[in-house]
Design brief:
Oligomer: heterodimer
Number of strands of chain B: 0
Radius of gyration of chain A: 18 Å
Shape of chain A: globular
Structural class of chain A: alpha+beta
Distance between the termini of chain A: 32 Å
Mean pLDDT of chain B: 96
CATH topology of chain B: Formate dehydrogenase/DMSO reductase fold
CATH architecture of the domain at 4-67 and 126-194 in chain A: 2-Layer Sandwich
Mean pLDDT of chain A: 96
Helix content of chain B: over 70%
Structural class of chain B: mainly alpha
Largest interface: A-B, 48 and 32 residues
Order of helices and strands of chain B: HHHHHHHHH
Number of helices of chain A: 7
Radius of gyration of chain B: 19 Å
Number of strands of chain A: 12
Low-confidence stretches of chain B: none
Largest sheet of chain B: none
């Protein structure tokens, strides 16, 4: 079985959100619906060293769309079968079947399924499978000015960049087996970290 | 608090109330302790039970973005607990409703009706089990714990038993004054208060990198106080006939039920409001 995935270089990402907007443009998404979201995780404190105070402020970005998981939390709960995993590994919602119960968005720990108020059903990142079938890249990947996103068969990405898919504020990759590889920022905190916070809750 | 989830709050609390009271009344009907006239009057009163259940299902469709496709909710029976919930809920409504219709029209033999009643009670239990399973999602730590089954079963007891007694009283049954119902309700209320305290304490141990469960609902204390006060007020009305050795009246039990229902409705709002995932 084929399986595509994303490589996310959090050491390069500056949080410019071009990926988020190119996707929005390509998929014609309304305000409040973001198939790709850039999470800003930030924290830090004052540290006393002898007689002086030093700060340890940090922040880093994570560009997350749908991770087209091996064990998707969304498809497991979907009552209509609209949320399904395709032969090529993409997790896609069949918008003609979805009843808009929002159960998938309750279950997904990455916030990938997004409810469209106007359509009355769920929508989500489909990995731009139509573009991929034509040999093109997903729109977000091509648009990144920092070249911090890469797309391809997950096996190849893992061979090239390793297998890490855990970093705060993502949940443990053991639950849904996401098909992403993350290169960590130098400030990266582990998955179960409590020291930071989401600095841009209204943008995601 | 998650007022926007009012369709699900209504659906779950109404369904638990209906099934809870149906199990009590069904048990009583099966036990043969009721005279024929009592049975007839109780069947008439049970109209309100099906009205509540029907209202619940109507409310549940308001939760859907595409209610005209509601039938698709049954597509994954077997693998999705939400499908199972809707399937067994509909089956409960159909079997129980059919029993009720046969009894009202006095059609079918008593044996057939009793079989149907027993089947509907069993299906009702499976329906309640499925409803609990819907919310035991391993990526939702605030739901995926022992407090979910506790909360749901307690609603069946608190709201369901009181509603059962209200219907028995309305049907002028000799069983209406039975001590067991308010006593069981009082025990359920004590358990409910203890469980609530335990759950509120447990919240401090549930965190994701960006969400602390204890901080999701700002006015949690207020809501819990209002909810607890409503429950105790309902309980006081429910108990009054026991203390004064009077017969319970619908005039007393109806407001008691309304208070209890609102209390459980708020508790369910808190439940939905506590939603978070293990991630972002």
């Amino acid at each position: 079985m084929k399986q595509y995935g994303f490589y996310i270089d959090s050491s390069k990402c500056t949080g410019c959100k071009t990926c988020q907007l190119s996707c929005k443009d390509n998929k014609d998404l309304d305000i409040g619906v973001n198939f790709r979201r850039v999470y800003e995780y930030a924290g830090g404190d004052w540290l006393k060293e002898g007689e002086i105070y030093r700060q340890s402020v940090y922040s880093y970005y994570l560009s997350i769309a749908c991770n087209h998981c091996d064990q998707p939390a969304c498809t497991k709960v979907c009552p209509s079968g609209a949320m399904h995993k395709r032969e090529d590994g993409f997790v896609v919602v069949d918008e003609k079947t979805c009843i808009g119960c929002k159960y998938c968005s309750m279950a997904c720990p990455y916030g990938a399924p997004q409810y469209n108020e106007e359509k009355g059903h769920m929508t989500k990142c489909d990995g731009c499978f139509e573009r991929v079938e034509q040999g093109m890249q997903p729109v977000c990947v091509g648009s990144c000015p920092l070249r911090a996103l890469e797309f391809g068969p997950i096996a190849q990405l893992r061979e090239k960049y390793g297998t890490n898919a855990d970093v705060a504020p993502l949940p443990s990759s053991l639950t849904t087996k996401p098909n992403i590889v993350i290169k960590q920022n130098r400030n990266a905190r582990p998955t179960d970290d409590q020291s930071g916070h989401l600095a841009n809750p209204k943008e995601v | 608090m998650a007022w926007h989830e009012w369709p699900l709050m209504l659906f779950t609390v109404l369904a638990q109330t209906s099934v809870g009271s149906f199990l009590v009344l069904g048990g009583l009907l099966l036990s043969g302790q009721l005279s024929l006239n009592e049975e007839n009057r109780l069947h008439k009163a049970m109209f309100f039970l099906w009205a509540l259940m029907g209202l619940g299902f109507m409310a549940s469709t308001a939760h859907l973005g595409s209610p005209l496709r509601a039938m698709n909710a049954l597509n994954q029976v077997g693998s999705s607990w939400l499908s199972n919930e809707i399937f067994f809920g509909s089956l409960f409504f159909a079997a129980g409703g059919f029993y009720w219709l046969l009894s009202m029209l006095n059609k079918g033999t008593p044996q057939v009706r009793k079989m149907l009643l027993a089947a509907a009670m069993l299906i009702g239990i499976v329906f309640m089990y499925a409803m609990i399973k819907v919310y035991l999602i391993d990526t939702v730590p605030t739901w995926n714990n022992i407090f979910t089954p506790f909360g749901f079963i307690l609603t069946m007891l608190l709201s369901g038993l009181l509603f059962a007694q209200l219907l028995l009283t309305g049907a002028q049954s000799k069983q209406a004054g039975h001590k067991l119902l308010p006593v069981a309700g009082a025990i359920a209320a004590v358990v409910s208060l203890v469980v609530t305290v335990l759950q509120m304490t447990d919240l401090s141990s549930i965190n994701s990198a960006v969400t602390a469960a204890a901080g999701i609902i700002d006015n949690m204390q207020q809501l819990q106080l209002i909810r607890g006060a409503l429950m105790l007020a309902a309980l006081a009305l429910w108990f009054k006939p026991l203390i004064t050795s009077d017969k319970p009246t619908t005039l007393l039990l109806a407001p008691a039920f309304v208070l209890m229902f609102v209390s459980e409705f708020i508790a369910r709002g808190i439940f939905y409001g506590l939603h978070m995932t293990t991630g972002m």
